[in-house]
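For reproducibility, we list the full input for the zinc ion complex.
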Amino acid sequence: MKAMVLNEICSLRENKRPLKMVDLPIPVPGENEILVKVSACGVCHTELDEIEGRTPPPEFPVVLGHQVVGKVEKVGGKVRKHKIGDRVGIAWIFSACRKCSFCLEGNENLCEDFKATGRDANGGYAEYTTVPEDFAHKIPSSFSAVEAAPLLCAGAIGYRSLRLTGIRDGKTLGLTGFGASAHLVIQMARHQFPNSGVFVFARSEGERQFAKELGAVWAGDTEEKSPERLNCIIDTTPAWKPVVEALKNLKSGGRLVINAIRKEDRDKDYLLRLDYPKHLWLEKEIKSVANVASKDVSEFLDLASEIPIKPEVQKFTLQDANKALVELKERKVRGAKVIMFEMT
Ligand SMILES: [Zn+2]
Ligand SMILES: [Zn+2]
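The corresponding predicted structure, in tokenized form, follows.
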């Protein structure tokens, strides 16, 4: 099968073609696993973190990609939940122990044995991949493969982030950064919390305009003051400046949820501007969101189908995966980038 593999950590600024096209044997599913013929795979900012070593894969070569939609091609001997021909999705959570206290309470994302698709196991930048059956999700029929792929990471983690803000209807929500995740969060927020105003902070005029099209009541630059202080804010940027700037816009007792697997060090000195009375005092909270649990993925897919959420996508071929990654690095983003394997 054709696969784009990462052989080593490198800087995307120096190496614009970090992934190499290779031919690999089609993987064989274990007894609790399914073999999936990949139809589409979303391109995520986390791939940049893997390539550049902020969340390095433990072994090389590795096939990246954790927003995988495809059809079940083969099933292991003990598989009960899926059958050949079913359409499934695979998200960032590849497996967890299913026995520890985190797993038992539905937070497998915090399990010490958490394994990530496309980092700890081969992912979807390939024609085929395998996954334990418990971590494959049914895709609602209302979505095409290319529409469903970006929902599996950006959408599912956005769903978890929104849940972790503790928002209730009528409370205000801020979003810093308006990329793949935030443009989905605004749609679910407007559906689940119709009386909550959404305020967006984004660097580019294009992103701000896009936010307004999707129903933001206000959109401004990262360091701007929002017209009112906000109950909660979700940060989806790789930088530190938006964190500091967001804190000043929080109400007393407000919560900032950071939805980023790693932050880049480039503007880390911005944290020195942190002013305790202005940014943290009066019981403001900061919480990170880590990965996704299985139920975040399945609950979000159902919600997305009900709303319905149709992500805006930009399609690439497998050969062009490097191009998609470089564009993401250079923040040429409007909606979500998806690698297509077939025209569905
Ligand atoms: Zn992702
Ligand atoms: Zn566990």
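The radius of gyration is 20 Å. The mean pLDDT is 95. Both points were considered when choosing residues for closer inspection.
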